[in-house]
Design a protein that fits this description.
This protein is an all-alpha fold and 154 residues long. Helix content is 62%, strand content 0%.
């Protein structure tokens, strides 16, 4: 029988692999394209940067009862390849946090989580998985819209 941790890792791995496969061959033009000049968040670029940031936040370690790594230099990726590389690195980091045998998912997040103190660590991991799933779906849709725009311009 799978543990809760195994189930969460399976979900996370599936969503990560689906995003990685969906973004394979991503060009800088697709990555930077915005269907609206009004909001820079409506782009693959923003979504990949947001996911990389979300998956590598120091709170992931502290809220799950581990010591956060030393802070690195946070910067937005400068190309599609860099964004995908940053996403792969942050996904691996988050996965290692969840897989750490010292993480007890049944424990409450505690005071460090502020208004979420009473929520379990499992609920926090599910929140991060939800971020991954929904932003990955948005990135995939934006990629489809970009492809349709290019075809429509011909």
């Amino acid at each position: 029988m799978n543990s809760a941790t195994d189930d969460l890792l399976e979900l996370f791995d599936y969503a990560s692999e689906r995003l990685r496969d969906r973004m394979q061959g991503l060009t800088d033009a697709e990555w930077a394209w915005r269907p609206s000049a009004l909001d820079p968040k409506i782009s693959i670029r923003w979504r990949l940067d947001h996911l990389a940031s979300c998956l590598s936040e120091p709170r992931n370690w502290s809220w799950l009862g581990l010591v956060p790594p030393a802070p690195g230099a946070a910067s937005a990726a400068g190309s599609a390849a860099a964004a995908l590389s940053a996403l792969a690195d942050s996904s691996a980091a988050f996965r290692s946090v969840v897989a750490d045998p010292a993480v007890d998912l049944t424990v409450a997040l505690g005071a460090a989580a502020g208004p979420y103190a009473a929520a379990t660590r499992r609920s926090f991991v599910l929140h991060i998985a939800d971020e991954l799933v929904h932003h990955a779906a948005e990135a995939a849709l934006l990629r489809d819209l970009y492809a349709a725009r290019v075809v429509g311009d011909r």
